[in-house]
Amino acid sequence: MDSLIAMRATGSPEAFAHKMKISRSTLFETIQEIKLLGVDIKYSNIEETYYYADERRLIIGIQKLSRQT
Questions:
Q1: pTM
Q2: What total of structural domains would you count in the chain?
Q3: Domain presence at residue 61
Q4: N or C: which end of the chain has fewer CB within 10 A?
Q5: Sign (positive or negative) of CA dihedral 60, 43, 49, 44
């Protein structure tokens, strides 16, 4: 999702949902949740794509913690 938004390559909401293999309603819910966390995502009707309106991103990752014995 992040890559497509950053590249301005999402397409319409329907196309974006299809690319993500999720429903359109799930796409809207996910974008709304990300916006609530402070990431400014907007949609351009002219370019037909979502884009980041500023430099903020939501980064989610998994990190293995070393065990202390």
A1: 0.83
A2: 1
A3: no
A4: C
A5: negative
Tokens 């999720």 identify what position?
22
Helices (H), the chain: 2-6, 13-20, 24-36
Is residue 58 domain-resident? Answer: no
Beta bridge partners of 43: 50
Tell me the β-bridge partners of 27. none
Orientation angle between helical segments 13-20 and 24-36, nearest 10 degrees:
90
Range of the domain at 35: 2-52
Tokens (6 digits) for 65: 């913690």
pLDDT digits (tens, 9 = 90+) for 32-42: 999 999 999 99
Q: Is residue 8 part of a domain?
A: yes
